Amino acid sequence: MKIKEITDFLETIAPLEYQERYDNAGLIVGNNNNEFKGAVICLDSTEEVVDEAIELGYNLIIAHHPVIFQGIKKLTGKTYIGRTVLKAIKNDIAIYAIHTNLDNAFLNGVSTKIASKLGFQNLEILDPKPEFVAKGKYVGTGVIATLDEEMEEMDFLQHLKTRLNLKCVKYTSLRDKPVKKVAICGGACSFLLRKAKQVGADVFVTADFKYHEYFDAEKDIIIADIGHYESEIYTIELIFDILKNNFSNFAAQLTKIITNPVKYL
Questions:
Q1: What is the structure's pLDDT at 80?
Q2: Average pLDDT, integer, range 230-247
Q3: Residue 74's pLDDT band (boundaries 50, 70, 90)?
Q4: Residue 248 has pLDDT above 90, yes or no
Q5: What's the rounded mean pLDDT across residues 139-154?
Q6: Does 50 share its domain with 88?
Q7: 66 lies in the same domain as 22
Q8: Phi and psi, residue 104, nearest 5°
Q9: Is the pLDDT of residue 133 over 90?
Q10: Pick from 87, 91, 175, 238: CA 20 to 30 A from residue 193's CA?
Q11: Does any domain span residue 263?
Q12: Ramachandran region of residue 219, left (φ > 0), alpha (ψ -120 to 50) or beta?
């Protein structure tokens, strides 16, 4: 089996046309016509993850985040990006990124995975992409979950922390109202706060709010910032399950490397 068969299948789940204009999803390093030996699935492509693939004898890394996001002019090994790419090339390891195209794939997407970890099933798209919705496709950023039973606000935040195995949750002022509708968006989605308010969400679960952006909650909604890595780490389970369920004898491993650059004391 060629690497191309794996990446082509992933693109039936999350077509590259679903990605945002600023993104760089797809094959980033390597030759997808090489015979597939095995894949390491990760959130971030780093030198340590390449080492992991080398040790396993695998020749494909499937990452959520593109290791090359913006244009680079030099590959000298002076940055982690350059060192990672050079080591992958030297060892004939392909690197493939499935990023905002997977974020926007509602039926098998990143935010849907978070909702499932929280035990929520009644889902809708938070921010649908009109150009795809017009074609009858379920494409868009984030999800809205309507809970079967209301939860007290602190109970919800504790549920969030427990089910997602979080070290902490940053949140805005409580409203003394039960939680019934929740907006969820993996990654940096502060730009969807207004949309979360418009749909009547009681809580917006996402990551990477800046200090002054928290004030925009205005007690209309509770912002629950769980961290970027933490909001997307279950994406690797999602990718692994998609591939394991569709390829027999599929050699793959979830990375054992914690690539989160943020540490907690």
A1: 94
A2: 96
A3: confident
A4: no
A5: 97
A6: yes
A7: yes
A8: -90, -5
A9: no
A10: 238
A11: no
A12: left
Q: Are residues 71 and 51 in the same domain?
A: yes
Q: Output the pTM of the full model.
A: 0.95
Q: How far is CA 73 from the centre of its chain?
A: 27
* 55: enclosing H helix or E strand: helix 47-56
**CA-based torsion, 6, 9, 14, 18: positive or negative:** positive
Residue 143 · residue 124 · CB < 8 Å: yes
Two tokens at 89? 């090339």
d(CA 37, CA 12): 21
Helices then strands (H, E): number in the chain? 10, 11
- The CA radius of gyration of the chain, in Å to the nearest whole number, is 19
Residue 264 inside a domain? The answer is no
199 vs 185: CA distance, rounded Å: 14
In a domain, 259, yes or no: no
Rounded to the nearest 10 degrees, how much is the dihedral formed by the CA atoms of 7, 11, 17, 19? -80
Indicate if 93 and 115 belong to the same structural domain.
no
Residue 189: phi and psi, rounded to 5, are -130, 30
Burial string for 220-242 (b: 16+ CB within 10 Å, else e) reads ebbbbbbbbbbbbbbbbebbbeb
Confidence (pLDDT) at 73: 86
- Residues with Cβ within 8 Å of 172's Cβ and at least 6 positions away in sequence, in order, are 214, 217, 219, 221, 222, 223
Residue 72 is predicted with a pLDDT of: 85
Find the domain containing 61 and state its range.
3-99+234-254
Position 59 scores a pLDDT of 98
